[in-house]
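Hi L., both proteins are below.
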Amino acid sequence: MVSREHKRAVVLHEKLQLLRSITHSHADNDNAIILDASKYIEDLKDKVDRLNQDIINNPQSSTIQDLLPQVTVETLEKGFLINVYSEKSYPGLLVSVLEAFEELNLTLVEARASCTQNFQLEAISVEGDENGGEIVDAQVVRRTVSKALSHWNTISTDQQDQ
């Protein structure tokens, strides 16, 4: 029959080995495992403090990226296929995208939009200026639409804060 103290020692040893593996310790004795775990916890605390400081210094860095819709642009023979997708639909989002098209002087040939639970826009456009205007490429279209969405997000965030 195994004594209670022996069972406790076995359980303690198993827990220390688990702690050793979680903290990536290479220590052999129990005291060193605990010291390594303590250092590991301090390192994690420092990382959390640095991340919190980053959030304080730049509060919109992660939230804007989470809120901004995804924009993809493919070049077609005489225009672009533009897809904009967001997990959530927001008021004014479609208007911002259409204003970006206007800024680029793009003419919509065909568009399909859904603004119910999520936001999805698939648009085929051609360059609207046939009088020798500036020709744009897919990267310019994507950047301009993304910039318009970023501007839209700033305005909508400001309105929500009021």
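That was the first. Here is the second:
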Amino acid sequence: MGEAPALFADDSLASFSNGLHLKMHEFETATVVGNKTYVIGTTDDATSNGVRIFDKSTGEWVFPTVLGTQPKAFNGHSTMPLNNDKILIIKHNSNSNDCVWFLEVDTQFVQDQKVKFDTEVVAWSKGVIGDTERPIVISGPSGVGKGTLINMLMKDYPTMFGFSVSHTTRKPREKEENGVHYHFTERNVMEEEIKAGKFLEFAAVHGNLYGTSIEAVEVVADAGKRCILDIDVQGARSVRASSLEAIFVFICPPSFEELEKRLRARGTETEEQIGKRLKNAKAELDQGTSSGLFDHILVNDDLEACYARLKEILNLDGKTDAIPKTSTDEVFALPTDFSLSKFHEKILINSPNAHQKIVLDLSCIKGGAPGRTRGLSMYITDSNTDDGNF
């Protein structure tokens, strides 16, 4: 194989065992995973989005489709391949709450997206210290009391739960605020983001798109709250098929006749509107109770009893509202220069000028692209500690 094309500024030269010599920018790294070398650097290049791949088997450069939430350009970082399906990236001169990122190169999500896009794909995922409670998907036909149950949860536990803000392509109405009532967006932008796998669920309603993005759910978790998704059965099916690990709860009436009675008792809709809601409700009841889609099916025959069962499912029995959990404990600064070493599921961050070592524990991580990778633990230990016991 001849020398690879010189795609980089003449700041540094990286050499690989396969004979490849690569000119690179100062803040770029090259990580070998299998037959591919992943060059990771700045994300301000519209051509590469910060990632280039040299495929040794073909001797060619590949500019992949880059998915997930991308980090801002970083001035220096260290990398390490993990399990041949992702690359760990730790930013230099950063804080512990924003220093860990993962570039997924062959996870199940990436494999699925490669088939979908019919091209090379990589995906970013931000590493988050600590974990969060699983989101809750609550579905049920109109008139079943689902909204009342959710309002009871929000009233009793206002700091424990939060709602994701949905996206829509319709124009904002009077007094509606972007980012508060909806994320108002252009149709072509939302369609591209749907194609890129950034939405858990979406639907076309009266000519406009509505949907729940993965990022909107992650923002609630970042605030230390447990996200509630109030969506229909079709939306719940899409969420179930996504990478989000949630608890799925379906609320149904004691009978269809009782549901019709409740809808008519509202006195706010025409006969035609009631007929449409009843038709949709029958379809949702058939799907919600027979598909195996939901983890729990609650019959709302008595509101207080149904609420008690919902709290039991969510492990809220005897609990009172609490201050939201934070995703990090103590925030500390990483050194400007360091190297990485690995022992089992722990990464040791070594700095030649530091008297202490920083340990990154990956043993409890879960989630991943296109959302966050959660469950990380990072702490400081004495530099004299034996590497096998940190």
